[in-house]
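Sample A.
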Amino acid sequence: MVTRVDALPVTPHKPADESQARGRRPLSVLLVESDTARSEQLKRALKPVCALVEAAPTPQHAEALSQRCHFDLFVVTLSQPGSRILEWLQVLRDRGESAEIVLTSEYADVDTAISALRAGASDLLVKPFRDEQLIEAIRRCLRRRRQLHENYLSRSVKPRDPSAEGLIGESPAIRRVLDVIERVAATSSTLLLQGETGTGKELIARALHRRSGRKGQFVAVNCGAIPSELLDSELFGHIRGAFTGAHMSRSGLFVCADNGTIFLDEIGELPWPMQANLLRVLEERRVRPVGSNQERAVNCRVIAASNAPLEARVRDGVFREDLHFRLNVLPIHVPALRERVEDIPLLIAHFMRLLSPELGTPPMPVSPQEVKRLQGYRWPGNVRELRNLVERALLLGKPLLECCDWDEGGDPGRGAATRQPFPLTLSLAEVSKQHVLSMLKSVGGNKSEAARRLHISRKTLERKIQVWNSES
């Protein structure tokens, strides 16, 4: 009797016990073992510690099962030297299979070990081995994969201290935001945060993740800071050989955020082709690494953010309307600091407490008159600008008002970015250059925000800077 490969059953994916259901992510394992009795023995040993254990007698059967269900780890038996098992493992690695592989064999020679490692095996067990040795090998593989993910995140995403800016305040504007966080944190709905640069959108996204109960990581991605040609690979991963320099397969940031939250900052800067790819991921919750023909399911909450209204970018034809509808499930307006001036005293006190120990300087008192003057300023840089002002005052040991970069009349309604006393001897091109560079400096080098305030596209701004750099 010939068993059809596609007729093999798949056991429902459920936790092995209550502690696993409440705790870590369920683990799915596929055994590739031609010996039926040995396969059953291994299944019995692994079921208490794994949520899903399936068995396949041949690589062909294993291929069929892996097409229908994602497995975190393969336990593969090498029955004899020169087996085609090693060739199959190499095929898995070349196409971007992310599962860890534990190889078991009766042959302990060095050539077998080297061949196994080259084929992509993470660990090699020599028969006979105890069940506890197999479980420990699986744990080593999972620790290794977790460490690789953490190292990748530390290189790809600059960590930020959630308390560095402080989601602090008692004004009606910020209370509305906090109420929304409490209401929607535990849901999986896609959220869109809209507000000016420096208002604390990432801080709100982190607060939503902390209160969501999700066990996965929080992954923040600045869509405007990653080169467009690398976005596909960064977000969705790639397989080895997918492009020049892809020497090994790598999971993308969506996979790193599995069972967690991915925060897509400056979503409005996403290139048009990538918008279609992101829309598909949001609709199907599956990602396909660059160069691969296989998809992987991901379960991550998506929070997007934009410092400019996406409706305007849709009208300008630079942002897809269908993607905007998909992201705009629940829009949250993050208020500018000038909309919540009642919170300025609380924020100043918070930054004093935060920065004084770090800088080794004592906090300085702020009078009610100073607070009133600060509340009259428009704060184009919002909370981030206020934090920088407090840090500057602590470093210089001067009162806050003496450290403000306002105009000569001390008018808090006008920032330095709006004051451009250019000499009459300058040409129009030179005035334009100085104005653009001053605006860029006033927003801390944020090209997207500078372009928005100058009413030009980011590409136009980058082209001007490139021309000026080449001239100098």
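Sample B, a different protein:
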Amino acid sequence: MGFDPIWFGLILLINLEMSQTTPPFGVLLFTMKGVAPPDTTMGDIIRAGLPFLVCDLATMILVIAFPTLALWLPNLM
């Protein structure tokens, strides 16, 4: 299909990590709730995860726009 498998694997991994952090089926959210103090609400955990989701989204956009970011180091091998 004309794309590099390493690039596709990186996009897939970033997307999977984002899906594990977003409600309603965010497994990582429930894990964080399990280790958080008892007075921490699920809303607090979701709000705490939003900056990480924004960073993941920015990374995915950059890697899609500039595939050489993902392929520079593997191309050195």
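Observation for Sample B: The mean pLDDT is 88.
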